[in-house]
Amino acid sequence: MSLKAFHIIFVAVSVLLSLGLAAWGFHRFLTLGKSIHLLFGIGGLLAAAGLLVYGRYFLKKLKNISYL
Predict the structure, then answer these.
(1) Residues 40, 21: contact at Cβ < 8 Å?
(2) Greatest CA span in the chain, whole angstroms?
(3) What does the alpha-carbon distance between residue 22 and residue 40 come to, in Å, rounded to a whole number?
(4) FRET partner for 53 with CA separation of 20 to 30 A, picked from 27, 47, 60, 62?
């Protein structure tokens, strides 16, 4: 597995974890009503969005390099 393929997988897993954090934070906010959980939810969404932008940038930058 190349470094490029590993990097793409790592970014994808990080996006999923960020979305999981956001879901957890919003769920806890709805059940407990504490504002810190709302911040976790918003932070998770922002992190996922930032990682998606970074992933797209990375793919464009290294489009000529093989995945193998």
Answers:
(1) yes
(2) 49
(3) 6
(4) 27
Query: From residue 61, how far is each of 33, 55, 57 by CA, in Å?
Result: 43, 10, 6
DSSP count for the chain of H helices, then E strands:
2, 0
CA–CA dist 67, 6 (Å, integer): 9
The answer to whether the CB of 40 falls within 8 A of the CB of 24 is yes
Specify the 3-state DSSP secondary structure of 47: helix
The percent of the chain in helix, strand and coil, each rounded to the nearest 5, is: 85, 0, 15
Q: How far apart are CA 2 and CA 18, in angstroms?
A: 24
